[in-house]
Amino acid sequence: MSRETRAAVLEQSLRKLGVEKLGKEDVQRMQWEVKLLFAGEKKVCDQIFEGVDSLKEQCFADVTGTSVAVLLSFGEAIAKSKRSPEKLFVLLDMYELMRELQPEMETNFQGKYCMEMRESVVVLTKRLAQTAQETFGDFEEAVEKDATKTAVLDGTVHPLTSYVINYVKFLFDYQSTLKQLFQEFDEGDADARLTVVTTRIMQALQSNLDGKSKQYKDPALTQLFLMNNIHYIVRSVRRSEAKDLLGDDWVQIHRRIVQQHANQYKRISWSKILQCLTIQGLSSSSGGQLGSDSGSNSGLSRAMVKERFKTFNIQFEELHQRQSQWSVPDSELRESLRLAVAEVLLPAFRSFIRRFGPMIENGKNPQKYIRFSPEDLERMLAEFFEGKTWSEQKR
């Protein structure tokens, strides 16, 4: 195989790869081909020009020069291409490749003929590191300022949340490269720096989600949305390497935040309907207690009890209709939230119906007022947070 042919082999395989389409496998294949070429050509040149160092170096520089130039221009193209968060991984792949080639360059590319190539590799490695770092910075800012109007009407996990979490998981595949990158810029302890960066990305995501949560007209849905999204973040962190980095305290704090949003949801959604099931306000203005038989007082109290039942029915049906359309995608969280509601609603309802049900049952049309049994409520609560559309419910 002639010198030109050998030099063209790598060049061709490099040119076939488009910068935009470049993936990890392509960079790895390139790395393997480059190393193979360098080692092979070095061996050939050493054998042919044994003992004549200057010719040996010149021949090696000539044969590999074109491919190194293509490799460098390829790396330059990656460093120069339009920055986007997804580009970070290609930049890190290329940076990794150039760093690993440096010792090879030092060993194989000796002498004055190869000096320029050696220097170009060092310069490009720095350039890739710089661009990767800027791209990283861009990502944090993009998360903070993401203005996508994708409204998740049912309060489920937002596409931005799953995108950012997947991105961070990917980053952890590049842990050692990232640490190396931080050291290029002498940013102190690389582990600490990675922790700071990851924490900041998480903060950026949460502050963006806070903004998105304010788009909901229903404050209870705001709380449900934040509960769902922060729960998703915590669960993902706990299952990934990010847990060791962010630490147990971070996980515990954020689990508490999830609980706070769940409590807020419960308070906003259910405190008004629970008022219907209290004894407060059910004694008449003349001071007689409910259920006493002193003529009109009894009638007035019965009317008040009927009113309470009617209000309860309307409010519960409204809640059921609306919140069956809301979604809690995590089955464990969904179940625990339903249980938390059932634990406050069902005992209050049972106690109210036990105490005041007989008054209504003895009157006309009791079913007009007592529309639900405790079992009905329990069954209907099991339909909350299923993300059902209204048409599905009507079937």
Give a structural overview:
The protein is built from 15 helices and no strands. By secondary structure, the chain is mainly α. α1 (3-16) runs antiparallel to α2 (24-48) and α7 (175-184) packs across α8 (190-213).
Spell the H/E element sequence: HHHHHHHHHHHHHHH
Low-confidence stretches: 285-297
Major sheet, described briefly?
none
Report mean pLDDT, rounded to a whole number: 80
- Work out the radius of gyration: 34 Å
The number of helical runs is 15
Strand percentage, roughly?
under 5%
| Category by helix and strand content | mainly alpha
Helix amount, in percent? over 70%
- Gap between N and C termini, in Å? 75 Å
Shape: rod-shaped
What is the β-strand count?
Answer: 0
Task: Write the topology of this structure.
Blueprint: H1 3-16, H2 24-48, H3 53-80, H4 87-108, H5 115-145, H6 159-173, H7 175-184, H8 190-213, H9 219-238, H10 242-275, H11 296-323, H12 331-361, H13 366-369, H14 374-381, H15 390-394
Summarize the structure.
With 395 residues, the chain is mostly helical.
What attributes characterize this protein structure?
single chain, 395 residues, mainly alpha, rod-shaped
